[in-house]
Amino acid sequence: MDLTEHIGEWWLPDHPTHRVAGTLLLSREDGPILTLLGSLDDGWGENFPDQYSAILGEVLDVGLVTLRGCWTKSLRSSRTHKSGLAKTVYGAHWALLGDHIPQREAPRFHFVAVEVSQLTNWIGRSGLMTTWTQRPHTTDSNDEATAHDLCVSYLPPSSRYIDLGAVKVSIDPSMQREKTSTSVTLRNDYILKFSAREPICLREWTTQWIYPLVDFVTFATGVPSRIERMRTSIEIANPPEPDILAHPLDVWSFLRHRHLVPSDSRFQDQPVISFERASSRLDSVLNAWMDLHREIAGTLRLYLSIFYNHGRFPYTDAEFLSAVQAAESYHRRKRPGTQSSELNHQARIQRVLKSQTSKDRQWLKSRLRHSNEKNLEQRIGALVDETAGLFSDTTSQDPKVFAEEVARTRNFLTHYDPSLAGSRMSELETMRATQILLLVLRVQVVKDLGFTDAESNKMVRQSRAFSRIQNWVPIIQE
What we know:
- It contains 13 helices and 14 strands.
- The chain is an alpha+beta fold.
- It folds into three domains: 3-97, no CATH class; 108-260, no CATH class; 297-337 and 374-477, no CATH class.
- Strands 1-2-3-6-5-4 form a six-stranded antiparallel β-barrel.
- Strand 1 and strand 2 (15-27) form a beta hairpin.
- Helix 5 crosses helix 9, helix 8 packs antiparallel against helix 9 (399-415) and helix 10 packs antiparallel against helix 11.
- The chain is globular, with a radius of gyration of 29 Å.
- 27% of the residues are buried.
């Protein structure tokens, strides 16, 4: 469902009698876009409103629709509203398909179900089974023949339940059936179902719970993942039976979809963390991931951005800079420390400042503010040295030499120091360095999730990315 159109009537919650015809366009790249032949504000002039908390609608194929967090994108009209036509285009943060939620405050929900691409492939378990049977059969010409019958059965795999504290998640199997005039397709998918003790607004659902788990699927599989579908529902105030939910809502937002370019063979790898390895401790692994995501979300997304945006990196240097930034950020956040003790460093600064004139002292003090922090070369060297055993049989390059080359190349590309042009890495060397940095980060994150050094190294050694590093020199020589 990459692009859908919904035609209907639209109005403001406070003015239900003033309805305007228009089309709601839902796309992965732009989110909800509403185009009206007219304006929702009947008396608009030059100072027409440009933001609305909610716009309500009723469309032909879905029924009731609520747009939340709306703003005016463009307005085209004749000189006066009453004598001419107007075309107004609105954007919206959220589209809720299935009911009206007119209140001004953000709606809150106890339950959200999410379909995530790559989740089913990662789990790799299906309840579908096929058997062939034979039986005697008489043809139209009365000849004896053998008929082959195909029997398809489905035994749903067991659901998995994970307690993340304020939110509980279940991984539930779901049978999908698609039928045409010539074929029937049966598919076993998995859905993430979130439930919370206290109701949560959609923005909090996505940013604090759903996106982190989508990021986990991307990290675990090594393939970009995205939200394919998000659903929630409104609770009945006095249900006739316990746990009954009414009015299921499809949720669409420009925040929820990550636009993906066609897949690249470089990223068709074996899973970083296979479901089989994580299955026996899935609860602890996912809780560790959520804690890590809260701690270093920016760092993890720097790393994952290379997978999401590899088609947008036409230059080797761009991927290299992203990998270096992710590695530096990881070390800064997870390996805090300075070059020397803070006491000794402050004493040194005071000695240096005393030797300067009062005119230069203030300037020098500001320049020395971060002088005790480790530099890029030290941070990269430390991370590579921690995983030196992993690469001992793939390259004889010393971690310190590798870190020096990475730092020189980064400094040349970022600060453009012409004196470094002759010492920067070549394009092939830069590609290799990028792959090594990504593998180093992969090992560190896997260990952060509770796997041992031996388990982490084994996972990485089984990947195609590691094999590419092993065979890198022969490839270059060819």
